[in-house]
Amino acid sequence: MACVPGPVQSIERAAAILRLLARGSGRLGVSEIAASLGLARATAHGILRTLQGVGFVEQDEETGKYQLGAALLHLGTSYLDVNELRSRAINWADALAARSGEAVRIGTPLDGRVLVVHHVFRPDDTLQALEVGALLPAHATALGKVLLAFDAGAAAALQETGLEPFCRRTITQHRELGRALAEIREMGWASEVEEFTVGEAAVAAPIRGQGGLVVGAMGISGAIERLCDPRGRPKPTLVTYVRDAARAVSRDLGASRW
Amino acid sequence: MMVERYVMSIDQGTTSTRCILFDHGGRLVSVTQREHKQHFPRPGWVEHDAMEIWRNLERIAPEALEHAGATPDQVAALGIANQRETSVLWDRHTGRPVGRAVVWQDTRTDSLVSELNARPDADMVRERCGLPIATYFSASRVRWLLDNTPGLRERAERGDVLFGTMESWLIWNLTGGPGGGLHITDVTNASRTLLMNLTTLAWDDDLLAFFGVPRAMLPEIRPSTETYARASRVLPGVRIAAALGDQQAALFGQTCFAPGEAKCTYGTGSFLLLNTGTEPVRSTHGLLTTVGYQIADEPAVYALEGSIAITGALVQWFRDGLGLIASAPEIETLARTVEDNGGCYIVPAFSGLFAPYWRSEARGIIVGLTSYITKGHLARAVLEATGWQTREVVDAMNADSGLALKALKVDGGMTADNLLMQFISDVLDVPVIRPMAAETVSLGAAYAAGLAVGYWADLEGLRRNWHRAAQWLPGMDPVRRDTEYDNWRRAVERTFDWIKPGGR
Q1: Which residue of A has its CA nearest to B415?
Q2: Which UniProt keywords apply (chain A) (predicted)?
Q3: In the 8-state DSSP scheme, what is residue A29?
């Protein structure tokens, strides 16, 4: 390992700014911060703006001074409220349902399972029931596999438990699940073909927040003959719709690269 | 390669301006949005900077095109929906607004309104225009501005100063501003001024005289869908083909084209509109008679409206005024930390009460406080206030129309709140249905504009785009419903007569 890069200077400086704000009165102007740390004003301002963007510092509207942000206090808990996620995603979930002609669901992780936080009916005006609040198994659903694939901690926790079979095609071996998750990370989306319900298939993609952190999964589900080609693989156009919608939500949440 | 064409809508709302591109299936292609500052210079006063709103539009419209990788020549038409009744006056020669726009929630004209209501000829107003004299509508604000700005009345009489609601201001600017801007409004917006005759759909001389508003400052009244002009700025060459008040746009977006069809839009305030066909229906239960829409030279379609001033605005106050939540959707998270309201009720009569009471002297209260009450209970009470206010308006609508509502079609930002939607279904005891496009205000403006230029062929085609996206079914014990409703009504009574006549 000869080419491990050295410390990243801007992160060191950001850490110094946070330490400075954590001291004493805790409210400082940009010039005071720049002077204290021996930084150019523009440099300090750039770092403060970034820290403000991720919620680690807040700026007082009246005085323009900076202080530590509320997000720092909640680092351990989910930083995006699920009701806020629904609110931010609702337009794109509607558009995905309209485009694909299928039901749309958004899921977030909850105690090793998937909590359905939003559900849009399949647009055929048949009788359907709202599934918001339902819990789905992570290993047997496209939404759950996306959440596992991008959260190493959750995937590791699942190792401790047995993988319950729901259908003949449910993944029940940890080794096989590990391979499937690696493939999902590679492709950027997951599918579920008769793994949870016979005759049903699903496609899901990750919703990312700032810095690329996966905060949820969004996907469509429906009859296998509509979602899959004759060889049982999800139709590429539907996969594209799902990925585009998840990307649009991610963009709204501030994930710049996706 | 085929040129893909879109319809653009601009929703100039109370808190923000948004621009959305829709495709032929009525599906959202790109969205841009910018909030504008709310000015509260004194208690009861609410103002917007019209120039800031125009600059926001200048910015977000090209951005929306950019996000979709589109150019102005791919936009078949532009439709505008706007916050209603908010009034702006501006100088025809410089294009500068005269002071800030006075927003629909502003209650500065309450003593003027009491004076006007006391006049012997006051009954004539409601007969002619379908509205009660209230601070909510434009005419009293225009009169107030003319009375309180030195020299303004003379300039208005000469036609040097123009009046408009937000769509007039935006269309005038889009079509050149001081260099030949088109000064028009549409029938739905005009029907909210107190100055338009509901039958002739023209400015009424007696109403103008009653309110003391000079005709020279008023825009020309046009149908809601018609190609008014091509934009010369921001979106050069794009046809401006529709304008509707936001609530009427939502009625259109929900495809409530037949008499008896109704929708409720949950935003800053909430507004239930019922299509009553080509005849205006007079309310005896505190609802407004208003124009729903007018397609080109066809007869106008009327609506009965139940207006609720404060719903989403109460959540915003909970966030910004009290700081109990960081973002509006978190109200649901907080409300779910408790099982019920704990006996606490909030009546948000911030700018008086609108339908069905029309009490401008009422002010908000929180009742039932005990040391048991937590912020979770308050969050419940905030959401329940929207539910009960809807119930009161639905009761009035049922009484006026003689029909019982069978299901409520809903839209707007608050429909993302599942707890609230379930509560509304519970207290109304009917299913609540959200269509696949929650952005029905924008969609309605787009539909109206697209219809005007032939992008969509007819109303039936638009109807086929409507699909159910979610449905909540009632599940509340009837005894509990009645008890809670009774508590709510007792809470409402306690808001009355707070502001004393003449005093502040």
Answers
A1: A87
A2: DNA-binding, Transcription, Transcription regulation
A3: -
